[in-house]
Amino acid sequence: MGAGTSYEELDNAQRPRVERLCRLLLADAHEAQDVAQEVLIKLFRAQQARHAGMAWDPWVTRVTVNACRDRRRSAWWRRLRDGRAPLIEEHLTGPGSSPEDALVAAETRHRIWAAFRHLSRRQQEVFALRHVEGFSTAEVAETLDLSTGSAKRHLFRAVQRLRDALQGTP
Amino acid sequence: MTGCLPDRVLWDLSEGDGADGDREHLAGCRLCQWRTRRLVHDVKVIGAVLHGVPPPESVPMEAPPVRTPWAAAAALAAISLALMWTVRRPPAARPAAQVERTAMPVLEAVSHAVFPDAGIENALGSAAPSELELMAAAVDAAVPCEWQPGGCEELQ
């Protein structure tokens, strides 16, 4: 996707990933939606500035991860301020469930999501980029400003805990 | 599973890393091969689940996010107010008898200084709390009891 890409094309290409990442990294559906919108506005501005030769995928990923971090840091204050209850995130549907996802029992999916929510922020980010977004470990490390070894350690710990959830191990 | 590779090593190998010796072991060990396949499969399933939408009630939304801070703030404010009220409140009036008993040493000292009369001091010291008012009245009275209409017998 080069510099001459229209915003509509860019939005169509990036929006599902931005929304999915926000949904993964933020537990609150409203916040995920807000942050996804913020990122897409930044994307619009960046596209208007016509950065020549911009590699949009890593840029969008980095901006999304940072925006989610910022939101998580300030989440407690906002909840206190506006007292908004989280809603069920039905309207934030991504590209839909895969056949593998459909085969997994609802209870198992529940356990996996719950386990994912209990991972550390780093583990969530690393796992989401590597195994949901399909980045290489090196790309994950570069995006998150980690060493490759550190990214691998976070990834393996996340995998262990998520596998425990998959297998129903307490 | 003695001699087989730990999950961490299998993970590294599945990611394209790992030592040559471990890779050789994996090539010759059916159990480790099966475990690696299982590991990779599990990660694919987890990735697929997370790629989808969370089940409606599945994700613990850090509940209850709204009421807890307000409830905590309200409780904190209530405790603070109670503490402030307790600290600033003037001491409650205690029963007269208790005050008199507590203040006895002071009264005695004052009495001794003002009226160096051993009789009065003795009478004050031995008086029962119910008679103190009579004793005080007698001490305060400008007119000796002998001169009063009832005489001194009324006080006894």
Number of discrete helical segments of chain A: 8
State the major sheet of chain A: none
* Shape type of chain A: globular
Protein chains sharing the most extensive interface: A-B, 47 and 34 residues
Strand content of chain B: under 5%
Q: Kindly, what is the distance between the CA atoms of the first and last residues of chain A, rounded to a whole number of angstroms?
A: 44 Å
CATH architecture of the largest domain in chain A: Orthogonal Bundle
Oligomer: heterodimer
Distance between the termini of chain B: 104 Å
Q: Can you count the beta strands of chain A?
A: 0
Q: Tell me the CATH superfamily of the largest domain in chain A.
A: RNA polymerase sigma factor, region 2, helix turn helix motif
Radius of gyration of chain B: 45 Å
Keywords:
heterodimer; A: 170 residues; Rna Polymerase Sigma Factor, Chain: A; B: 156 residues; mainly alpha
Describe the overall structure.
- The complex is a heterodimer of chains A (170) and B (156).
- Chain A is mainly alpha-helical and 170 residues long.
- Chain A folds into two domains: 1-83, RNA polymerase sigma factor, region 2, helix turn helix motif (Rna Polymerase Sigma Factor, Chain: A); 100-170, Winged helix-like DNA-binding domain superfamily/Winged helix DNA-binding domain (Arc Repressor Mutant, subunit A, Orthogonal Bundle).
- Chain A has eight helices and no strands.
- In chain A, helix 1 (7-25) crosses helix 3 and helix 6 (121-132) crosses helix 8 (148-167).
- Residues 85-96 of chain A have low confidence and may be disordered.
- Among the domains of chain B are: 7-51, no CATH class; 96-150, no CATH class.
- Helix content of chain B is 62%, strand content 0%.
- The longest helix of chain B is centred in the N-terminal third of the chain and has 22 residues, at 30-51.
- The model of chain B is unreliable at 61-67 (pLDDT under 50).
- The interface between A and B is large, with 47 and 34 residues.
